[in-house]
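Weekly structure sync, notes
Attendees: PL (lead), two postdocs, one rotation student
Agenda item 3: pending single-chain targets
PL asked that the sequence for the first pending target be pasted directly into the notes so everyone works from the same version. It is reproduced below exactly as submitted, 110 residues in total.
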Amino acid sequence: MPIIGELICKATQADYTEPENRGSDAAKFRVDIRQRGGTTLPTLNIEIQNRNLNDDTWATLDSFAAITATGVKEKSVATGVKELVRYKLSFSAGSADAFVRFVQLQTVWT
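Predicted structure, written out during the meeting:
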């Protein structure tokens, strides 16, 4: 049986997804948290970051609520999405062996 999803382990630095091109000015961002594990279960924080092609830095567009359970999570952004979008993934709780299995679902551009 194949393992589905990216395995994100607790670390001192954040992990980032590959940038995605904007489909329109507004979107529904979705992730599927398939598994959480560790001696103490983790809390996953996901920032939605964006930038234009000519920008030097990424800016936070919005954030998901702190993720403390498995399942599909959604965050709608009504306006203002720049040309490139990515997720910044970090942990705010959990033991040193904490991990999350994460699937980035297709963005719904509106």
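Discussion points:
- Strands lie at 6-9, 15-16, 20-21, 27-37, 43-51, 59-63, 71-77, 84-93, 99-104, 108-109.
- The radius of gyration is 14 Å.
Action: rotation student to compare against the earlier draft before next sync.
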